[in-house]
Amino acid sequence: MKKSVILAAACLTTVSVFYSSCKKSTTTTPTPAATTPPGPTLYSRVGGTAMVNDPKHTGTMIEQGRLTLRSVVDSSINVIAADAQLQPYFGALFAELGAGNTSGLTALSQNFTDFMCTATGSTNAAYGYGGKSMKDAHNPAYNNRISMKVNAADFDKFVGDIGTGLAKNGVNSTNNAQLVNDLVALLETTKADIVQR
Amino acid sequence: MKKRKIIKITLISLSVFFVLFAVLIVHIAMVTKYKAVEPDGRQLSRIDFTEKVDSTEANKIKSFVGHLDGVESTYFNIPDGIFVYTYSLNKQNSLGVYNKLMSYGKYKAHRYVVDAADATKGCPAMGGNKSFILSLAMYVGKLIN
Description:
The structure holds 2 protein chains of 2 kinds. Chain A is mainly alpha-helical. Helices cover 49% and strands 3% of the residues of chain A. Chain A has one domain (26-194): Orthogonal Bundle (Globin-like), CATH 1.10.490.10. In chain A, β1 (51-53) and β2 form a beta hairpin. In chain B, 46% of the residues lie in helices and 17% in strands. Chain B starts with a helix and ends with a helix. In chain B, 24% of the residues are buried. Chains A and B meet through α1, α3 and α4 of A and α1, β1, β2 and β3 of B.
């Protein structure tokens, strides 16, 4: 009797550990691709898989598509960081750091670039986005890094700032309206998940 | 005799449990796509101007700060008087940049220093908020990859 009780307890413990570890989040990890129009992917239109020298890491190569997106992301981060309306969401960006610490800036740049690479059609596994779904990532109940839920006005401002970042890299509605529209449309596909207030 | 049997069964059960737990951690490490952030020591800082700055002056400020050692990029939100810049932590610091800028132009401006509470808040893409299991899985992932 005692033997079976002990074995049963061990099995129950094991099963509960497996169950809780494999518990799914409320939403699936996104494949954040907009409705793909016929023709080349957005990723190929911003440079694709052609390998070029990485200006930030001497001696290493990077896909042109990722380089372009990273430049846009980094420019956009500056615009967003200087945006008083979006300040409540990005306080940690300005936290003073001690030597040897990786700032939130580096993580934001890398993760957002990964997201854009995945969303625009990159198939390079090294550039894949592996973070939380947009819904979970922007819900304080599932992510205590975000202080409050996002409203529509702030989301629209964020997209506008990305547009400014794009313009700082030489792409605007005048010289490449289609690309701007497609990128904005891509970001808009995440609105329903991100705007929760 | 009975006591030895109970101890034996308990030990076997615990062994099986730990083996399965280890398998689970390795499994999570292999499927988890979390990537380590490259430590490049970049910092973003901000200076708020309380006086009106026109585009000509803004360009002067961007140029001056942009040429300081270690500064990588600058941006000036002219309507709101907010100036941000990125730099390498190994070569520059925000107080140094601010002091040099104030010596250059004697502007009415102050450094934006985030308080401790706001320093913990940020866009989720900035990382953080890893669970214990994920942290353990990442550690194992580094060992096996």
